[in-house]
What we know:
Strand content: 5-15%
Radius of gyration: 24 Å
Number of helices: 21
Helix content: 25-40%
Amino acid sequence: xxxxxxxxxxxxxxxxxxxxxxxxxxxxxxxxxxxxxxxxxxxxxxxxxxxxxxxxxxxxxxxxxxxxxxxxxxxxxxxxxxxxxxxxxxxxxxxxxxxxxxxxxxxxxxxxxxxxxxxxxxxxxxxxxxxxxxxxxxxxxxxxxxxxxxxxxxxxxxxxxxxxxxxxxxxxxxxxxxxxxxxxxxxxxxxxxxxxxxxxxxxxxxxxxxxxxxxxxxxxxxxxxxxxxxxxxxxxxxxxxxxxxxxxxxxxxxxxxxxxxxxxxxxxxxxxxxxxxxxxxxxxxxxxxxxxxxxxxxxxxxxxxxxxxxxxxxxxxxxxxxxxxxxxxxxxxxxxxxxxxxxxxxxxxxxxxxxxxxxxxxxxxxxxxxxxxxxxxxxxxxxxxxxxxxxxxxxxxxxxxxxxxxxxxxxxxxxxxxxxxxxxxxxxxxxxxxxxxxxxxxxxxxxxxxxxxxxxxxxxxxxxxxxxxxxxxxxxxxxxxxxxxxxxxxxxxxxxxxxxxxxxxxxxxxxxxxxxxxxxxxxxxxxxxxxxxxxxxxxxxxxxxxxxxxxxxxxxxxxxxxxxxxxxxxxxxxxxxxxxxxxxxxxxxxxxxxxxxxxxxxxxxxxxxxxxxxxxxxxxxxxxxx
Length: 626
């Protein structure tokens, strides 16, 4: 995989310029248009590595959460509609692999080695942390993966087991912490992180807190391995709590990428040709049509745990549409919430027969009558106007006048749709947050029997999530005051937040793992941790409120072949690059994977990872495998 470096180095210097405004970035005695891995300095690599790591992993997080029950797509809406009813397809598994290995990791070992050689510990520490972060995501997704030989010159590197990768990442994160805690070098001639770091802008304290948060996150995934030391691959509650004491203590400590609505001069060089400035979730979801909230998400936002108190975040996560012919307020007879001229979506019931009956369909807008309608002769679909898609727009890349998406065409604001908080062009990427620390702490203390401590952390996590969302809502309105008219952008009031905390989340005596994990998924929407949590607790509907395998799954033969009845969606199959060009090593690792099918029913050899139901094989941390 090392040989792939030449594909991406050509874009590295200009990427750093775009993200850091450092005018002398390429002031080197070589041709700046043709850098090579031999002469490109380590500090030039960081911005490039951060961009491709964040983008690739956000693409993967979005694809995994499409299958976890909160979002779906319009009927016939392609691969990600299929994924939402548990029909995983090969097309979903390649991009993350490419953006991590080709875009990011191809540069990481050289950055680390060159930084270590001159004792620039902050760059080396950031490099080790990103290495651990990326490979942990790879083992979350695929299970086994080339790891120790991933940067070797061999075009066919050997695989490591999930356990080897997992423990290797924990060792690597400890190395990252060791280096980051050494602090700034005393040599003034050495570059500092600030020049190319758009995750934490050179703040070493934030890097250290992120490292401890990720370590707590990863040890927490070992709950199926029994109690013991994390160094032995065991669930280590005391170490989790020690890490959390050194992780984020407030929203001020968060690692957040604040994307912008700009069409900057630098676009990615892996073939998408999109700006590096904007949100990866806008790229894969927000700018695209037909993504809709489900009834599971809707119910958990409007009636969490049956408390009958709406979450103040509901207005910002659930999309709205401008409906100019109606001015009522409140809830109408169909359960639709209205606010002046705007109305909010309902949720698609994936447990119903709606997909079998051809729905849901996207609504269209008639500019003659200023009304929404469904373009279908199917009477059962006429009511699908209640489902509002999460599409949004941008001023930079598309040169449109607003970030509101207009169904009837640019500038036709009578047909505006708000989009959803997490997938707009300038939505933030939450890499590591205080809210997540609170929920991990709540889960850990709950399992230790400290219900009072667990409840305090649970409540603090919800409050932190609301406050963090409000920060961005205020920015959007400051940038475009006209957005204040749309309920999706109106900041939450203190009264609404406090009412929810006091009346809508349950009491200490009512606290369960379900309360903790469902509030965590609202705060971490579009994160790998949603799928990780559901696998850790075996998709238990007593924990994941409103969850069930979508009804349409059982109507599609290819879907039931991929995930047969009685099994669950546990991993991604390897992408075609591996089984086409590294099949010997892929097949060899299968001998160490419980549940891998090496032969067919007649005893003929098969590639285990390409079998229809390979999606159901648990990854190492999700199993009882030693």
